[in-house]
Structures are given as C-alpha cells and as structure tokens.
Amino acid sequence: MTISSRGSKKANNSSKIIPASVSPSPSRSSAPNMNSSLKIQKRKSSASLKPHEEKRGKESAGVLQFLIMVGGIYGSFLTWALLQERLTTTPYGSTTREFFKFPVFLNTVQSVFAALVGYFYLRKSDRKRTGLSSIFPRRSVILPLLLVATTSSLASPFGYASLAHIDYITFILAKSCKLLPVMFLNVTLFRKKYPMYKYFVVFAVTSGVAIFTLRATSPKKASKATNNLQRNNAWGLLLLGMNLLFDGLTNTTQDYIFQNFQPFSGPQMMCANNIISTLLTLSYLGLSPYLVRSGFGRYFGLTLSTSGGGEFAAALAFMTRHPWVWFDVLGFAACGAIGQVFIFYTLSNFSSLILVTITLTRKMLTMILSVIWFGHRLATTQWIGVGLVFGGISAEVILARRSKRSKEKVK
C-alpha cells in the first residue's frame, strides 16, 4: 500500500510539469516513468526493511542458539554425572559385587575422546590453520599448557578416591565452590585482593558443605553404598580438598594463558589440554605396574590382588568380567567431550555470567537427579547446607554482575 501511493504521487507531479499542448501517449511515456518510479520505491523500501529483518533474524537465531547450548550442556553433563556416580560409587555384578577403581584409565578414555572432538571443533572454528601450529601456536605456551594438563590429571584421581569415603552429593556440593581454591591461590601466590562480599560467599559455602557433611546420607538401597566401616569422612574431605586445590591451579593457569597468549582460543585449550593429558595418563598407566608394588597406589584403590599387572590391565580385566561397564565408560567419555564443546561454544558466543548461571543450575539439577535416581535421603539440616551453598554461589553471581555494571557506568 505504501509503495503504490508514493508511486502515484510522483506520477501526478510529473504530469503537472508537462505542458498542456503536449499530449503524451500513456503507453510510451507515462507508463515507463511510473514503472521506473515503482521499481525505485520498491528498492528503497526493501533496503529500509532489510536491516530490521536481519536484526529480527539474528535475535531469533540467537535465542535458538542459546536454547541449543543450554539443552546441550544440561543433556550432556547430567548424563555424564549419572554415569560418573554409577562408575565410582555403585558395585557391578550380581554374584561378585565389585567397584570400578580405575580413575586414571577412565581419565585416559575421556581425554582421548575430548582430544578428538576438540580437534574437529578447532578445525571447524578455524579452517585457516591446520596441524600442530593450530593447536600449539607458540612454543612458549607449551609449558603453561603442560601445567594445566598435569594439575587436571592429578585432580581427578583425588576426587574419585574421595568418593570411597564421602557420598556423591557432598562431592557435588564441594565441587560447586570452586571460588574457594581460586581465591586461596590468588591471595597467597599473587597477593590479589577481593571485595568483602566474596569472603562472605566463601564462608557461606564452606559452612554449607560442613553442615551437610556432619549428617551422613542414608541411601535407600544399602547395596549401592560402600562398606561404612571403610568410610572415613575426614580422609575423604582431605582428598576432596586436594582435588579442589588442583582444580584451582588448573583454572588459575588457564586464565593466565588466555590473558598472556592471546588470541589463544577455547577450542585450542580443549584440544591441547586433552592431548597432553592423554600423554601424561598413558605414561602413568605404563608405570602403574611398578607403582602398585611401591605401596603408593593403594591410596587410590590399587592393590596387588586386583591391580598387580597395573591399572590398565586390571581395568580391562574388570571390564571383561562386567561387559556393561564398557557402555558406562564410553558414554561417560562421550558426554564429557561433547559437554566441553558446548561450554567453550557458549563462552565464545555469550557472556561468562550466562555460563556460570547455566553451570550453577546444572549442578543443582545434578544433585536433585542424584537424590531421585540413586535413592539418597537428606535430613533437614542437610537441605539447609545445600541452601547455604547454592545461596552463597547465587549471591556471588548477582553481586559480581552489579559490581561489573557499576564499573561500566563509571567508565
């Protein structure tokens, strides 16, 4: 409607300019002028509408992209967490009930999957560079990457070993407060100062974990719990503390790499970290037959009776006796690798605050799913501890966002 009215106005104006003595033929003069004016108006109107259409298209694509990312993170990591709890805390077999106690083997399978998926993700996101130069752009970055791979490879065995003494929900709660080891390392090593509210957050989260741990959970199915006589909460929390310390070192070193080796990207970090981790864990598996005889391996579930030939041989023998473990191990590795892609993709396309919020809600859902799936019963005081943990983390996210906005207003 708008186009036709503009075209008619222009045609009328042009007819007024023509003298009365001249009577132009409608088929040769007026019609071409009107057609040309209509074409010009159509082009202008389409050009004016195009930016709005592009903006709407981008917004709808952004919403769809966000929903896919959230669904991918939830789907992959909720499944990953269920498989992790099953592998580390539940026995396999109907007659001879055995526990899977091979954390380094499990890490190796996961890092192999993640390295392969990370490489394809890197090739997809950056097609200009190929080969090792795309993964390790500079020699100077290899040493920090080696530190990241070492600390991440050391963190997991401590975490899995702690599950022999504490329940999985305590494990999830403690893993949710990664702010504590990061702050501890930055304050002690780098003399960094934090606002007062972060210390209150750490206090709330630590108190929540302590309150929760004081009341041991009681699973409905006793067969799914380890022998209570062998459980030692203090030792389990110490192992978990070592896990969090190595996690903090991993996160701090990753931040250092991203700040000092720009433009080092998330896909590069994922691929490089998992390649080096695979080499480190394979080296350990090769040396494990000698380590188990030294007495060091028994702290991580390696004994001469079950792991005399080393962790790799013992894990394969276990999976031969219980073939269903293959599905759990491969599913665990695949979900972890795919979940990492979704995390790095979310971080590169959305803000880190959105990723923190997604991760926080995902861990809450993981805990609830664990309670339902594995039949844990939580006392009222334990729910108070859960509320302190997630309340403290939520407060940290909100206050950090306000602080960031106030700084932007000052600028």
UniProtKB/TrEMBL annotation:
UniProt feature, compositional bias: Polar residues: 1-13
Topology versus the membrane: Multi-pass membrane protein
SUPFAM superfamilies, alphabetized: Multidrug resistance efflux transporter EmrE
Bias kind Low complexity: ranges: 14-37
Protein name, as recorded: UDP-galactose transporter homolog 1
Top-rank taxon, per record: Eukaryota
Leader sequence segment: none
Cellular location(s): Endoplasmic reticulum membrane
Span list, region Disordered: 1-56
Organism this protein belongs to: Golovinomyces cichoracearum
KW Oxidoreductase (keyword) present: no
